[in-house]
Specification:
288 residues; Serine Threonine Protein Phosphatase 5, Tetratricopeptide repeat; 3 domains; 75% helix; 0% strand
């Protein structure tokens, strides 16, 4: 039986958010579960594009769908800095009481917790769920926690479910990127094959650039990041990695300062920007 939602999900996993939105807006079905799943990825794509106000406007606060409620909470977390502390407390309580009702809700809870540098809580959020997206979230979280061996174990389980799935391939590439030096280039091959198969995306080019940095091919990293910025000039992760590449390629200080200024302007609530600003303030206090 054909998977009607494959393209929508796949575009989302690859970071091709506008394509995901385009496919979702064309999608038609009489099946309520399919329509709801379509909405989940549609609204997550809007959030990823910095348009969290759309799901906040369109998903009722009283929705009975655990998945859509989780999407709405994530949209509020991204859209309303004043609500972050309250949302974090709610999620931590849900994790502690094992009150997360669906895999999507668990993945989004882990996303919020990871963005808040609470990786142990993030892992607990998805620990009870065994689908590919939950396992991919576990892999990302374990790598963030510097627990690569455990991440490899999760990747093996993903491969047993479907080794050709996009999420399995991306998880394989991620753990390979942070493996033995001689194997790191294998991750580049995986990302390149996916780009050839599904088309280049901002996310794929950024991950290729990260691997290029790890293999000390700084010129290739810069070229890939320039291509990624042409696709999305405001992507926070691409801007941060562009800043790193600029420093590694001995670019003028003006280039680095311009990227920092753009990050501060476009993403004032991003964890990297908050950390950088706090360090700037601390330095200023020491100097004074």
């Amino acid at each position: 039986m054909a998977d009607k939602l494959f393209s929508i999900r796949n575009y989302f996993f690859l970071g091709s958010y506008q394509s995901c939105i385009g496919e979702a807006l064309k999608f038609q079905s009489k099946n309520e579960e399919e329509k709801q799943e379509k909405d989940v990825y549609l609204y997550r794509a809007y959030i990823a594009q910095g348009q969290a106000f759309i799901p906040l406007k369109e998903i009722p606060a009283t929705t009975k769908s655990a998945d859509l409620a989780a999407v709405r909470r994530y949209a509020e977390f991204r859209n309303n800095p004043a609500a972050k502390k309250k949302i974090l407390a709610e999620i931590q309580e849900d994790v502690a009481s094992k009150n997360i009702k669906s895999e999507i809700a668990a993945v989004l809870a882990a996303t919020i917790l990871n963005e808040s540098n609470l990786s142990e809580d993030a892992f607990r959020a998805v620990s009870r769920f065994d689908g590919l997206e939950a396992r991919a979230s576990k892999v990302f979280t374990l790598i963030k926690m510097n627990k690569r061996k455990l991440a490899i174990g999760e990747v093996k389980k993903m491969n047993q479910i479907d080794e050709d799935a996009t999420l399995s391939q991306l998880a394989n590439a991620l753990v390979t990127s942070f493996g033995a030096a001689g194997k790191v280039k294998d991750a580049l091959y995986i990302y390149s094959e996916m780009a050839d198969k599904y088309g280049r995306t901002t996310d794929l080019e950024m991950h290729q650039a990260v691997v290029s940095v790890l293999t000390q091919d700084y010129a290739a990293a810069e070229e890939l990041l320039e291509a990624a910025l042409e696709r999305d000039s405001k992507d926070a992760d691409v801007l941060i990695n562009s800043l790193v590449a600029a420093q590694l390629n001995d670019k003028d200080d003006e280039v680095v300062e311009r990227l920092i200024s753009q990050l501060k302007h476009e993403h004032p609530n991003h964890p990297w920007v908050i950390d950088y600003t706090n360090k700037e303030d601390e330095f200023d206090r020491i100097v004074v």
